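Continuing the series of single-chain predictions for the mutant panel. This is the parent chain; the variants come on the following pages.
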Amino acid sequence: MNSMAFDSLVDSVNETGFSNDRVDIIKTTISAAGIVSPSQVAQLLDLIQFSDGKLEVAKWAFDYIHYYDRALYPSVVGKALPFSDAKAELNEHIRRY
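Parent structure:
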């Protein structure tokens, strides 16, 4: 996602109060953009309050990562997940992909 679109997304997420609404805005915008980087996903996860929402976005966004960036995804995005079980679930999701 280009930096202007990403900055606009971050602003929109910050203006949204409920975690579920934040997840929805993130998913809708990434879908429209068609691509996102692992570091952008990690930054977006920091804007979501609850672990379930973070994991949902982390697993879902993997489909929008450029092929060449997929090897970085587990380490970069995994750092943004607060619990080891969430990291393990993300890694399992990626392995099944």
